Predict the structure.
Amino acid sequence: MIKIGILGAGRVGEAFLKGLKPLHEEGKIFVAASHRRLERREELGRKYSLKIFSSNDELVQSSDIVVITLKPDQFRSLAESMKRKALFKDKTVISVMAGITLNELYEKGGIERAFRIMPTLGVINQNGLMAMCASSLIQPQDWMDVESILSALGDVVRLEEDKFAAFTALGGSGPAYVALLMESLVDSGVTIGLSRSISKKIVEHLFESLVGLVEIYEHPVHLKEAVMSPNGTTAQGLLYLESTGVKGNIIQAVIKAYQRAREME
Ligand SMILES: NC(=O)c1ccc[n+]([C@@H]2O[C@H](COP(=O)([O-])OP(=O)(O)OC[C@H]3O[C@@H](n4cnc5c(N)ncnc54)[C@H](OP(=O)(O)O)[C@@H]3O)[C@@H](O)[C@H]2O)c1
């Protein structure tokens, strides 16, 4: 049975624990984690009934696959001693750390067999999208094993490492852009006289139904055209939005996020 260790179970690490626990309970994999603080170890132990190590070294030694969910600087301060002890020799590592490249995993931590993934926030309710690339030592069977395990947290897409900053700018930051749009629409409903609760209900319905509607109309443009009738309300609303340059502004916002993601690499 594959043994998986989550190293540094904070927010993202806990999402992994939560998503992988059903596979652990079905006896398909064995899952454990580590954390540096006693109260956090007790909390995770209570919530998930899984083994939580105080020693990262012991966690790594007892795992086949180590998921590193530390912050990048936390990893950098641990990596040298882990490299000296050759802890990651023969281990497969999955790193979720933003901006840490496969090359840095190797140089700083001596990690040769590595997957780098960038998860979207949706992994916290097992509805994420994860971009994934791997070092050259990773074999087709490793890809299949890891993709199958990660499918417990959402969908996986294989992506070249030099596209990770773009994935971060769109998929990683995306929930914040959409949340801002949602907030603006709820406020607009209140502005034209709806109660906040009704306005929120309408907006939540819009977002919930949108993916299904885009599938039916096959493209967002076709959906827009279906709602836009001659001399109608939608045409007036869209005319105003287009005159403010909304599409260009959204593209510029994602370019700004992309530039920042590149700076952080
Ligand atoms: N949050 C996101 O939406 C997101 C999305 C994509 C990728 N990521 C990446 O995911 C990683 C984790 O992010 P996060 O938001 O989950 O951060 P986080 O909540 O701070 O998780 C890191 C955890 O590691 C613990 N830790 C620190 N040093 C340790 C050590 N030496 N031994 C054991 N545990 C240790 C920290 O403990 P303390 O609580 O004591 O500090 C903390 O609980 C980051 O590298 C980030 O780039 C995050």
The two ends are 35 Å apart (CA to CA).
